[in-house]
Write a structure and sequence with these properties.
alpha/beta, Aspartate Aminotransferase, domain 1, Aspartate Aminotransferase, domain 2, 42% helix
Length: 496
């Protein structure tokens, strides 16, 4: 048998062995700050407290680094858990079991769509849930949705990864693709850009104007991308903002849609915090709704829009179930078919997460057995989040050298800190950015976990950190007090 010719050089077995040196360089370079070095340190301290509760100057670790509501004692919504319980354990559907009838009825609808909750579903997800998502979108926006353009996913993050990995091309093909993302940004976009060997093109939000998104910033970033030979494949917008907490104005949304449609750049609308709006007289509007009202999906070159939502945020806080969806508008059927193929590689989203997604978009209606309780639980959670948002922002603005825009939406505050040159130099001795040093010392002194602004991106010469306001009302005051005491000591040690 004739040996095949090859230009590859034979390697020793050691070269094939999987080690740090032989890993994918892009995987090693990708960073995800919300679970980075500070969180790793918090796990070490948590273990230390478990072994010796008196060994540290605090009694517990308070994880304000990530939007994980139920880890911070938020109670789940009863209707959601009733439905999930029934679909997972069908014996609970028996008339003798005292669960709300509307939850049982909903569970029967889902179970009629699959032979078993332990079976794979269609790759886009259960048809019954996708119909519920389509109906939700029509109620919310006033425009119909096609279930064939809806993909159920393991949280919004899996949908983002699926879309980005499909649209970003290999540089070996002779192109250099990029994604535009707001700065500050949620770091999944920068991490995936690195992993996919693409460029992250930043556009800066205006901190002096409540983190507004200006048309000038978008156009300037597009021009920079063009000068650098980057082909833009999408523009990410996070509304309400993460980590910044702003809610975009209608005018900003319209200008962004006009610009992207004119430039042929798809919009990736991260709208997972759409239920979290706290500012009076402010309401969430989806990019989908605004685009329809602008007729942006009409014509020879319609706007391309991928919209993402998740069960993890809002008032549900069902992060662990990993439920979510994305919807496509303005994309060719051939593109949707490739996305379907990519979704099929993962077979389907987990079935429990799909059910939670259905319960999220199709909650109990007035007259249903669970309606009153559902509305009361929803209101209690959102009212509490609003109280905590206002309280935290006000407290941060009282601290020396710190300023914080109000958290009008989402579940985070992103204050700017002025740090002295002495603090910057001390951080450098530890091989850290100044804000990372500030956050690490905060953890070591108080047990409070926050994330440095350098993990999200920030304007040059500024320092920030992101904190949630998810600790419950009774704990929020102590978190604020601990942060204030630490900050005063830090500023005394490294005065401005």
């Amino acid at each position: 048998m004739e040996a095949a010719s090859s230009t590859f050089v034979a390697h020793s077995p050691d070269a094939s062995r999987i080690t740090l040196d032989t890993l994918n360089e892009h995987a090693k370079a990708a960073e995800y700050a919300v679970r980075g070095a500070i969180v790793a340190r918090s796990n070490e301290l948590r273990d230390q407290l478990a072994k010796d509760p008196s060994s540290l100057p605090f009694s517990e670790i308070i994880s304000c680094n990530i939007g994980n509501p139920q880890a911070l004692k938020q109670k789940p919504i009863s209707f959601v858990r009733d439905v999930v319980s029934c679909v997972i354990n069908e014996s609970l559907l028996d008339d003798s079991i005292p669960l709300p009838q509307d939850a049982k009825d909903r569970a029967r609808i889902y179970l009629s769509d699959t032979p078993s909750m332990g079976a794979y579903t269609e790759s886009k997800g259960l048809a019954s849930v996708r119909r519920e998502v389509a109906a939700f979108l029509e109620r919310r926006d006033g425009y119909p949705a096609d279930t064939e353009n809806i993909f159920l996913t393991n949280g919004a993050s899996a949908g983002v990864q699926l879309v980005m990995s499909t649209i970003m091309r290999d540089p070996a093909s002779g192109v250099r693709d990029g994604i535009m993302a707001p700065i500050p940004q949620y770091p999944i976009y920068s991490a995936l850009s690195t992993l996919l060997n693409g460029a992250l093109v930043p556009y800066y939000l205006d901190e002096s104007n409540a983190w507004a998104c200006s048309e000038q910033a978008i156009v300037s970033a597009m021009e920079v991308a063009e000068e650098q030979g980057v082909t833009l494949r999408g523009l990410v917008v996070i509304n309400p903002g993460n980590p910044t907490g702003q809610v975009l104005s209608r005018g900003d949304m319209e200008s962004l849609i006009r610009t992207c449609q004119a430039k042929g750049v798809a919009i990736m609308a991260d709208e997972v915090y759409q239920e979290n709006v706290y500012k009076e007289a402010t309401t969430f509007q989806s990019f989908r709704k605004v685009a329809f009202e602008m007729d942006a999906f009409e014509g020879d070159k319609p706007l391309q829009l991928a919209s993402f939502h998740s069960t993890s945020k809002g008032f549900l806080g069902e992060c662990g179930f990993r439920g979510g969806y994305f919807e496509l508008n303005g994309f060719d059927d051939e593109v949707s078919a490739v996305l379907y193929k990519m979704a099929s590689l993962g077979l389907c989203a987990n079935t429990a997460g799909q059910i939670v997604t259905g319960a999220m978009v199709n909650p109990p209606r007035e007259g249903d057995v669970s309606y009153t309780k559902y509305e009361a639980e929803k209101k209690a959670i959102l009212d509490s989040l609003k109280r905590r948002a206002v309280k935290l922002s006000a407290a941060l603005n009282q601290l020396e050298g710190m300023s914080c825009n109000s958290a009008d939406g989402a579940m985070y505050a992103f204050p700017q800190i002025q740090l002295s040159q002495a603090a910057v130099e001390e951080a450098a001795k530890h091989g850290m950015a100044a804000d990372a040093f500030y956050c690490m010392e905060l953890l070591n002194e108080t047990g409070v976990v926050v994330v440095p602004g350098s993990g999200f991106g920030q304007a040059f010469g500024t320092w920030h950190f992101r904190t949630t306001f998810l600790p419950p009302d009774e704990q929020m005051d102590s978190v604020i007090a601990s942060l204030g005491d630490y900050h005063d000591k830090f500023m005394a040690k490294f005065p401005l």
